[in-house]
Specification:
Length: 340
């Protein structure tokens, strides 16, 4: 029995309403999920945060600049500006700080700096939102450590000849500094002893010593006489025997006598008489050095000759044959002889 105030349910009407409600609920959920799933790049980017920190590993020509960068979630690059004033004027290469959300330590090396000089620097970081500039920091480069380099010449020097020991004191404060020459003669067991008078370096740090009458191979070094003394590497100067050679006619046609002395005495040293042809020595004859006196040896040999230039080589072999011991003197040539 139907009640007059009741409305009969219309199945078709309910069926039309149900899909509408069903459609609305899923759309609301999908829209919410879409908002939550938006990537960080779709949100507004934030400029990075930077801190300029103190320098590390500062030397006279280089330093490591340090700092920290927080990319704030965006791909970020950084570099340092540096120079003699807050105008800077130079910058490092650009490096990558990543895209994280926490501060990361950064560092870059700068080179080509001047010693004992103040430099300003600051850290700069850049991402898609813009650039952030860190505070100014300063560093002071160190002085250049003093160092010595020397050269002895000529090397070898003929027995009894004059040797020049020259060199340079390099580094900060190298001008007008006192330097002292020391020597240690063969067989190098007596130790280094100061020789001659001290010298004072030029404004460029250069200096020069002369040593006359060198009689045997000698080690040289130079040092600065101070509490923090600087000592050069050792330079070894060799002494060559001095060969005096002459030529004399003989009664035999096409032959000549080549004779002379070797100083110091190197009795038993090999003597080679060489004909010079196209820049090369061709052996014409040989002999050995024999005693002459306490300071010299002598040699003499008749050899077949032709027109041209000849030279005598005194070859000193290591051993007791030399009164100056093995290594005390070295081999040498005499002056050229011209045979007509």
């Amino acid at each position: 029995m139907n009640h007059p105030h009741e409305v009969a349910s219309d199945p078709s009407h309910d069926a039309r309403r149900a899909p509408v409600a069903a459609r609305r609920r899923p759309l609301t959920v999908i829209a919410l999920l879409a908002v939550l799933a938006l990537p960080a790049a779709a949100q507004a980017a934030t400029t990075p945060k930077v801190n300029t920190n103190g320098p590390r590993e500062v030397s006279y020509g280089s330093a490591v600049l340090t700092g920290s960068v927080n990319p704030n979630g965006s791909d970020t690059s950084y570099y340092f500006q540096y120079g003699l004033t807050k105008a800077y004027g130079s910058q490092t290469a650009i490096a990558d700080a990543g895209a994280g959300t926490k501060a990361v330590a950064v560092r870059l090396t700068i080179t080509g700096l001047q010693p004992l000089t103040v430099y300003h620097y600051r850290l700069v970081a850049v991402n898609s939102a813009g650039a952030t500039i860190g505070d100014d920091e300063k560093l002071l480069t160190t002085k250049v450590p003093l160092s010595l380099a020397i050269l002895a010449s000529p090397n070898p020097v003929p027995f009894g000849g004059l040797v020049t020991v020259q060199g340079t004191l390099s580094g900060t404060g190298n001008a007008n500094r006192t330097v002292v020459l020391q020597a240690n003669a063969f067989p190098f067991t007596a130790g280094f002893q100061s020789v001659g008078n001290p010298e004072v370096t030029l404004p460029t740090g250069e200096f020069k010593f002369t040593v006359p009458g060198l009689g045997s191979s000698t080690q040289f070094r130079v040092f600065t006489p101070a509490s923090n003394a600087v000592i050069s590497p050792v330079a070894t100067e060799n002494v060559a025997v001095r060969v005096a050679s002459r030529v004399a006619r003989t009664k035999r046609r096409g032959f000549a006598r080549v004779y002379g002395t070797v100083t110091p005495a190197v009795n038993g040293a090999q003597i080679a008489i060489l004909r010079i042809a196209q820049g090369h020595g061709i052996l014409a004859g040989g002999t050995t050095a024999k005693p002459l006196n306490a300071t010299s040896s002598q040699f003499s040999r008749v050899v077949r000759v032709r027109k041209g230039a000849y030279r005598v080589l005194a070859k000193v072999a290591p051993g007791p044959a030399s009164a100056y011991g093995p290594g005390g003197v070295v081999s040498a040539y005499g002056t050229p002889l011209l045979i007509h």
